[in-house]
């Protein structure tokens, strides 16, 4: 699951993250849990400014977080949107997060677990091919995860995909790749701040979201591979 020690939210525009090859949803939901854990309850308010009731440690609204999750497989996306997994996968999630963010199935759903609504509403799923240019409606992201996908492409295609991902980063945003993957070409705009973690250097006078994590916090957001 996503690491503990996620960055604290500090107000400003929402922190935007993109899981660019989300498969059946484990990565974006794991990231959502890590980011939710980092939000003080005063930042978890609904649009009317009310602090919502809490379920364990989970807040039912977090306007400071927006996660886009994309994949080429419609079948994988359908499963990801259902947010249901075999209970055996619970061993991969810290106990506190299980209690806060997951529901255990009963009756016909015995042996399954499901993400709580407050977690699911943070993630939007879209079908997308990494070989295509990201549509402008996607916007820019503070965090982009594209892990264990580039290994399936040739060098030229890898370089093209990475260049497009970097173009989708907000100022000071981070790109997370798999441990066996790299930038596949020099890009003076980004620098490695932790193993497999790259940060876009903003032009002079431009800054990212006030929620953009420090390099130390960003390195904690790498999910298990």
UniProtKB/TrEMBL annotation:
Region of interest: Disordered: 43-62, 204-225
Source superkingdom: Bacteria
Pfam families listed in its UniProt record: CheR (PF01739)
CheR-type methyltransferase domain location: 11-203
GO molecular function: S-adenosylmethionine-dependent methyltransferase activity
Name of the molecule in the record: Chemotaxis protein
Organism from which the protein derives: Sorangium cellulosum (Polyangium cellulosum)
Lineage: Bacteria, Pseudomonadati, Myxococcota, Polyangia, Polyangiales
């Amino acid at each position: 699951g996503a690491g503990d020690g996620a960055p604290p939210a500090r107000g400003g525009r929402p922190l935007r993250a993109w899981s660019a090859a989300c498969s059946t949803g484990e990565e974006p939901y794991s990231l959502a849990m890590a980011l939710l854990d980092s939000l003080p309850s005063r930042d978890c308010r609904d649009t009317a400014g009310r602090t919502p009731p809490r379920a364990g440690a989970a807040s039912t609204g977090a306007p400071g977080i927006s996660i886009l999750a994309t994949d080429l497989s419609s079948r994988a996306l359908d499963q990801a949107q259902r947010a249901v997994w075999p209970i055996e996968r619970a061993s991969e999630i810290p106990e506190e997060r299980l209690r806060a963010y997951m529901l255990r199935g009963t009756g016909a759903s015995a042996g399954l677990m499901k993400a709580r609504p407050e977690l699911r509403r943070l993630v939007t799923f879209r079908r997308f091919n990494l070989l295509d240019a990201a549509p402008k409606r996607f916007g820019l992201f503070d965090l982009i995860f594209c892990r264990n996908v580039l290994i399936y492409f040739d060098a030229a295609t890898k370089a093209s995909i990475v260049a497009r991902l970097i173009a989708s980063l907000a100022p000071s945003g981070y790109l997370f790749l798999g441990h066996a993957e790299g930038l596949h070409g020099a890009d003076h705009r980004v620098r490695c701040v932790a193993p497999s973690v790259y940060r876009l250097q903003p032009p002079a006078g431009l800054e990212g979201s006030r929620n953009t994590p420090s390099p130390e916090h960003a390195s904690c957001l790498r999910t298990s591979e």
